[in-house]
Amino acid sequence: MKFQTIIVGGGLAGLTAGLALQKKGISCAIISSGENALHFSSGTFSGDCPEETVRLFEEAGIVLKGDPAKDSWRLTPSGSMQKVRLAFEDVTLYPSEKINATNVLIANPEGFIDFPTAFIADGISQQGIPCKVKSFSLPCLKLLRESPSEMRSVGIAKKLDGCIEEVAECIKGLLDGEDLVILPQVFGLASPEPVRALRAAIPAEINFIGTMPPSVPGIRVQLQLKKAFERAGGTFLMGDTAIMAEIADGTVRFIRTKNLDSHILSADNYILASGTFFSKGLTSSMQKISEPLFGLDVECPEERTEWYSEDFFAPQPYMAAGVKTDKDLHPLRDGQPISNLYAAGSILAGKKNAGMALTSTFKVVKKIAL
Amino acid sequence: MTLQEITGSAHNFEECMKCTVCTAYCPVVPVNPRYPGPKQAGPDGERLRLKNPEFFDEALKYCLNCKRCEVVCPSGVNVADIIQEARIRYSQSKPKLRDKILASTDTMGSLARPFAPVVNGVLSLGVTKAMMDGVLAVDKHRTFPKYSSESFEGWFKRKAKAAQDAFKEKVAYFHGCYVNYNYPQLGKDFVKVMNALGIGVELLDKEKCCGVAMISNGMSKAAAKNAAINSGAISKVVEKGLRVLTTSSTCTFTMRDEYPELLHIDNAAWKNSLLLATRFIYEAVDSGRKKLIFKDSYKARIAYHTPCHLEKLGWGVFSTRLLKMIPGVEFTLLDSACCGIAGTYGFKKENYEASQAIGKALFEDIASVAPDVVACDCETCKWQIEMSTGYKVMNPVSILAEALDTELTAEANRS
Q: Which residues of chain B does A230 touch, with a Cβ-Cβ cutoff of 8 Å?
């Protein structure tokens, strides 16, 4: 099967590349082995983000807040403030390291333990702003409690999205003059409408803050990007794994996957956006860190003892490991660039964040869609 | 030996790192709170069951075996295999009469076929439906697939077999119970398309139900018996150098993947020779070996639904790209979602509501696209979508048979 571009990896970098290229009329296939890091997203992007991100996402129905070139601040689930650039519409962004409120209510569905209300309340109190924590319960959550192991973000969202009016009434009943309500990100799984409806119904600002995974807005954005990619004519090979790549004379000739066994996939260009260790874009043995598909040159400290810092909270050097590339993002293999292969996203060596993933992605898109 | 090989666990269950992505995508969890969800039912529960089989929970029967948990798992855990294997190994509940009837597609088909008009009439009567609902707990909303008065095998022997000798190139066809007893037309369409491609069709010496319904109804021993017979018959033609094609994504998936994983039948000798017809045709055309010539007059707005087992196989791309080759087709790929029927699952009274709730998103998607026809490689999805939406559902092979100019195609493939 032939495509113009084959992308290995269906996360933020892979999907963004696929959607941008497909919109330019370049036929793409994305090979995605299992779901990706968007499922663990906090709903925000940090690091320099390219301008094009906002427009491309908007075309897929995804509203991004913030200025891609200027820092804003978000309130994190641990109660601290963090610099970010862009955010899904669920999250409230602040111009400085202080939330904009005089009196805060944190409301949490009763029995939901994946949302650290005490940390958030503590952080807000440290900013000198009064803050109360209340829990709420609704009849539609009753069934969910029969299965105690499933009182998780996505399960709750599937119920609450179906009864937003009741949720709004319930939260209005809890309000006692607060001008900011903090809710966990358990709304808007299939579309952002429930998030918008709650904001419209409640006479206070609402800031939806991340929960333990899976991330409800992350899954929504993943589904919106995938749908936009497929409706633009892209081919998304879900649950398949690229297992072998044929390279000859410094170019990739074809790829084999687990599901398609003998059927080879070929393209003019290839993008490696397979992420790092969790998604197996990088693998490690006792001796070395490697890139398993193309056998690319990997940048990381030589000695295993230098992969990590003994200070648990310090940045761990192995996390900066990634493939080496030339200035056009062609990865190196035995020191030589592969001319029709590009690397994008967190598989690149160095500091990793969404901004860096998107910047490298758009750089590759421009090279391919010249 | 690598560390991974030493620590390898059955169906990769030790690879689970508790991210809960499987449960987020499980179609059953939101509609049935009695189902513990794939993470709990699969790798989490497995740890407990290994300690003591008494930890087995009969609620695992609510798993549809749709495999969507496996498709989304970032860590390559075969979650549904863990669940199905646990049911086979530990479940104490015996299949009810109703389950046996639903699962024995072969036997029921052979019994019903000679009396098809009577059986179809009786099965569609309100009073029969009420009785089956009351006595057997087969939901009254369901209409049983009609039985055909002539089986596909009967038609093939009578009408098609002799003509197949004219072709040098041959394939074998595993038609499955649905084509044989309920809908021979799909088998006829398959023969028509193959012959137009210049390929003759032969049937297996002996073909039994692939066994998927038996596996899901707690009859794995009977399923293994069928599997052994099919495996023997398939091996025989594969040794001759033939490929075996099917027109059902679930039969294909069951024989390729469930035989070795759940029934422990070694199919390595023929696994890669068993193909869904759409993959075989796409590969033949894509490689330039065969040509398809379509009627100028064929026009259709087609929406494709990827059945769960085809999603797991990862072969939906062959069917969709084949349909997109037809010049008169306006194509939409529907969002991948379970239709809710899951074979015999949706026929059971206790599952009817859950089944319809699961399919709701797909039905709404179809209604919003409003196609002329829904295309799909699975027969039970077809029943569910036709009953629940009123839209006509066709197998891609039947669409090809309708859209092809068979004479011109046959001529183009003759040389």
A: 333
